[in-house]
Design brief:
Largest sheet: none
Distance between the termini: 44 Å
Oligomer: single chain
Helix content: over 70%
Number of strands: 0
């Protein structure tokens, strides 16, 4: 069963992120395997939310909790899932109303960098 979860999670992970991100997670050993199996094999494969919706939730949660090291990866995944730069700005702004301005300011700066690296505005 675990190998099925891992393979399902690996496929979904690559739908959300890229090979470079997968290599980084897989490089974490048992922790990486748990991330792939549970987060992507179990949760991200559920049908109630689209990948787009899941990325809105992920970005909002990361901004709210100040997890700045993971925000760039999920901003890229959000764009890949179909969110526009303006929609991401709104998610960050909305999160600021509850989580505060400092984490939202950091996220907005990170979004600007992610968009610049992708040649978007």
């Amino acid at each position: 069963m675990s190998d099925d979860r891992y393979e399902r999670g690996r496929r979904r992970f690559l739908e959300v992120h890229d090979e470079k991100a997968l290599a980084a997670v897989e490089g974490l050993g048992d922790l990486g395997r748990a991330i792939v199996e549970f987060a992507y094999g179990d949760v991200y494969t559920r049908e109630a939310l689209s990948l787009r919706d899941r990325e809105i939730a992920a970005v909002a949660a990361l901004v709210a909790t100040g997890r700045s090291s993971q925000i760039p990866q999920h901003l890229r995944a959000s764009l890949k899932a179909g969110l526009t730069p303006d929609e991401l700005r709104e998610v960050i702004l909305q999160t600021a109303t509850i989580a505060g301005f400092p984490p939202a300011m950091n996220a907005m700066s990170t979004l600007k960098s992610v968009l610049a690296e992708q040649g978007a505005s």
